[in-house]
Amino acid sequence: MAKNSILLLRNYMQYALNLHTKTYCTKTPPHYDIIIVGGGMVGTTLACTLGKNSKLSDHRILLLESGTPHNWIKTEKYSNRVSALNLNTYNLMNKIGAWKHIAEIRCSSVKNMQIWDAISDVMISFNHEEVSNVAAHIVENDLLIYAVGKELCCLKNVEVKNQVKIKEFVLPQQPSQNVFVHLNEGETFTCNLLLGCDGAQSQVRNAMGVNYISWKYDQMGVVATLKLSEANENVTAWQRFLPTGPIAILPLKNNLSSLVWATTPDHARALIELKEVDFVDKINDALWKPLDNSSIIQESTKAFNKLLEFFELPTSNEKQLPPKVIGVDPGSTAAFPLGFGHATNYVKQGVALVGDAAHRVHPLAGQGVNLGFGDVSTLNKILGEAVYSGRSLGQITDLQEYETLRQRHNFPTMVAIDGLHKLYNTEFPPIVLLRSLGLQFTHALNPLKKAIINQAAR
Predict the structure, then answer these.
(1) Where's the FAD-binding domain (predicted)?
(2) What's the distance, CA 295 to chain centroid?
């Protein structure tokens, strides 16, 4: 009796699904093996990476993007939105052939980094020997999408549809069922595997109904393109932790750097309304102006430096001075809200989340987009192996392997970044002293610094 009831319920669900899909189309909708939703940096790279995977060469892939086709034209003016690409992302861009387009146009290398506490003035630095020559490559976001797009347009197994508005997704209830994607214009597509790369406000994630842990930081990120006083070799990334949030300048070329300044919303709004000369003064104050600290913190850090000198270990006395800012590119100043977000599950039957749709972090460590590109590399490998082994795309066991591998990396990284934000977002003297001594200790031990860099490169 119970078995018959289960069969009746299953037949009814399938009938309801069929009836539902018939309201959208009267003929069989176009079918793709993979549909990717979201054509930003991560979504476009995912489409190109899967399209170039030899094991997926006979699989049809569709990329759906709500915006207009990307039409980037090189100008002397740099974009104010840039990304610091780590070693793994650089290798991925090389693998899909996009890096050569970036290198032909422009990018910059970070060979040294200096990070210091504005209250205690304790610092940690990484030089080119400790970071294996290049710690990161600074690339404009629009340029990266353009470079990947040049490779993507040559792929016969990938189709791109722009200016698409999605009405809803119908996700499979059983392994044998397809995903249905219904557009506002009335079109419907089906696929074996739906990949959500549609950002922090992901429609795909909402359709999955997974729990999403999120909160807003009481901060906004102020960005701008800065002009420097001297046209020296610009290969150092500078970051100073202020009580209101970190300020960082990243090299673009010898006389230009990119600003990323996390501060309170009121301060951010006030900054972007300032005249250029006043804005420049505020940046230089944030980078250079000494802050008062307690005598206990000062004496304790000095004593710890002497202890390090006794053991002939590097101390934080060798701090370099950041470049002086003399101007800002007109129109390059902007601000955006900062937040944290993490989906408790990245996958369900026939669907997976990638990039910001699955996780969102504070930009203080420059890891946000790199986590997304790490998702791309892992998913590409797993899907290729699944097809090579004769399994169909979208099987939950393969998707769960992707989820496990990425959550093992992403979640600890995100917790560490959030912890750093909280650690440096206070002026409470015992916490300032604790973090300052920790920074001195880390700076003194090269193996520990290399471990940090290796983790950031993954």
Answers:
(1) 32-267, 326-406
(2) 39
Looking only at the bridges linking them, the beta strands covering 82-85 and 136-140 are: antiparallel
Side-chain-side CA neighbours of 125 within 13 Å: the count stands at 18
The answer to whether 114 and 175 are in contact (CB under 8 A) is no
Amino acid at residue number 202: S
Neighbours of 91 (CB within 10 A): 14
Q: What is the pLDDT of residues 183-236, one digit of tens each?
A: 999 999 999 999 999 999 999 999 999 999 999 999 999 999 999 998 788 999
Closest residue by Cα to residue 392 from 192, 194, 195, 172? 192
The answer to whether residues 61 and 32 touch, using CB atoms and an 8 Å cutoff, is: yes
pTM: 0.91
CATH of the domain at 252: 3.50.50.60
pLDDT tens-place string over residues 322-358: 999 999 999 999 999 999 999 999 999 999 999 999 9
DSSP H or E run through 45: helix 41-51
Distance (Å) of CA 449 to CA 44, 251, 293, 445, 456: 33, 21, 26, 6, 11
Domain of 98 in residue numbering reads as 2-456
Do residues 230 and 330 touch, judged by C-beta distance below 8 A?
A: no
How many domains does the chain fold into? 1
Exposure string (b/e) for 286-308, b if CB count within 10 Å is 16 or more? Answer: bbeeeeebeeebeebbeebbeeb
